[in-house]
Design goal:
Number of domains of chain B: 1
Strand order of the largest sheet of chain A: 2-1-3
Structural class of chain A: mainly alpha
Shape of chain A: globular
Strand content of chain B: under 5%
Oligomer: heterodimer
Structural class of chain B: mainly alpha
Shape of chain B: rod-shaped
Strand content of chain A: under 5%
Distance between the termini of chain A: 62 Å
Number of helices of chain A: 8
CATH class of chain B: Mainly Alpha
Number of strands of chain B: 0
CATH architecture of chain B: Up-down Bundle
Order of helices and strands of chain B: HHH
Number of helices of chain B: 3
């Protein structure tokens, strides 16, 4: 019998690979979270191959149910992108679609029972498996930093060094206050990846923690609280995936268009 | 005896901190959602044809508001039910003194 806090602690440990010794365990900075990596890659490959298959077999005749479904998601993302970003970009819409579906699928793993994956995998010798990749801050930061790199890249590509410099040093105050302008701009840019990743992480972490706490209740009461929280969590999951996509589009279109 | 006193002090402080984390998050989001929902209903009453568009925007804002409250609540719950990270230092210091 383990105590309450031990149970929670057990569920918050990742299945980690120490890169110093190449053994399972925590290696400080040089650690790979194998559970996060495995689940994200598996789900990413599944999602991309499904969409690829549907795109290759798309017909203009009577579409299958699957094709209808994929087209629905596709059109939803396309409309959202068109609403916000008006120029032509080969990157923004595919990136938005990938982020939306991927994050949504990863978040959905939160809805499967908290003990199912760890229990099943403990039979094959894998202890401490965490089933929800998006409540690993490493993953959310990796995604938001990739978006951040794209923001910087497009800022330089579209506006050029001179245009970006003029924008960064010359706004919001007059040019004579350029150090202040530059600091403002720096903070504005640095907050983007931070809020993007912490928002997703915070929501998913809170959700999982509450599921773990529900799992600690006696079995005959679990389904009431668990059911209510699951239904509420479906909303949170889709909204967070949608927000991640939306903010990515907004940030990238801000990088394309001179706002000042 | 001194150790028990220290631990009790730390734990009472932790409970207050956890309560504050949860309560402030609840107050903040409650006010935020109240304003948001109220304005949404007001604008839908004024222009019902905009309702689907505004609904999407409202949920977007709801998600934006929700995030930091969720972090705060998670931290509070972790302090309340999980292993208190601050307790470890007291126990370590006590163990050093004993040995």
């Amino acid at each position: 019998m383990i105590t309450q806090s031990e149970y929670i602690q057990e569920h918050l440990v990742h299945y980690q690979l120490n890169l110093h010794t190449l053994k399972i365990g925590n290696g400080g900075f040089w650690t790979l979270n194998l559970d996060t990596l495995a689940l994200t890659i598996i789900i990413g490959v599944l999602f991309l191959s499904l969409f690829y298959y549907v795109a290759k077999h798309a017909t203009s005749g009577k579409p299958s149910n699957l094709q209808n479904f994929v087209e629905m998601i596709f059109e939803f993302v396309q409309n959202t992108v068109k609403e916000i970003y008006h120029g032509a970009s080969p990157l923004i819409a595919p990136l938005a679609l990938t982020i939306f579906v991927w994050v949504f699928l990863l978040n959905t793993l939160d809805l499967i029972p908290v003990d199912l994956f760890p229990k099943l995998l403990s039979f094959v010798g894998i202890n401490d498996f965490r089933a929800v990749p998006t409540d690993d801050p490493n993953l959310t930061f990796a995604m938001s930093l990739s978006v951040f790199v794209l923001i910087i890249f497009y800022n330089f590509k579209v506006k050029g060094v001179w245009g970006l410099g003029k924008e960064a040093f010359g706004a919001p105050f007059s040019f004579w206050l350029f150090p202040l302008n530059f600091i403002f701009r720096l903070i504005e840019e640095l907050v983007k990846p931070l809020s993007l990743s912490l928002r997703l992480f915070g929501n998913m972490f809170a959700g999982e923690l509450i599921f773990i706490l529900i799992a600690l209740l006696p079995w005959w009461i679990q389904w009431t609280v668990g059911g209510v929280w699951s239904i509420f969590h479906i909303l949170v999951i889709s909204i967070q995936a949608f927000i991640f996509m939306m903010l990515t589009i907004i940030y990238l279109s801000m990088a394309h268009e001179s706002s000042h | 005896m001194e150790l028990a006193k220290l631990i009790a002090e730390l734990q009472s402080m932790t409970v207050i901190a956890a309560a504050l984390l949860i309560v402030l998050a609840a107050i903040g989001t409650a006010i935020g959602f109240g304003l948001l929902g109220g304005k949404f209903l007001e604008s839908v009453a004024r222009q019902p044809e905009l309702s689907p568009l505004l609904m999407v925007r409202m949920f977007l804002m709801a998600g934006l508001i929700d995030a930091f409250a969720a972090i705060s609540v998670a931290t509070g719950l972790l302090l309340l039910f999980g292993k208190n990270p601050l307790l470890g230092e007291i126990i370590n210091a006590a163990a050093q003194k004993v040995s």
